[in-house]
Amino acid sequence: MLTPPLGIxxxxxxxxxxxxxxxxxxxxxxxxxxxxxxxxxxxxxxxxTYAPGGINSLSRPCRPS
Length: 65
Description:
Number of domains: 1
Oligomer: single chain
Shape: elongated
């Protein structure tokens, strides 16, 4: 769960697994980076979100306006 209750989930996960909170936080960093990249793509290239066929249906490169 990387959605808003992230802090609570991290604390519960660390107490169940008896791991330190810092080690669990280090393990979720790659997933957070993927989410940030997705957010950047959706923000700066909106045709990808409303193109009927997705990426394959775009005939021109995405340029921010």
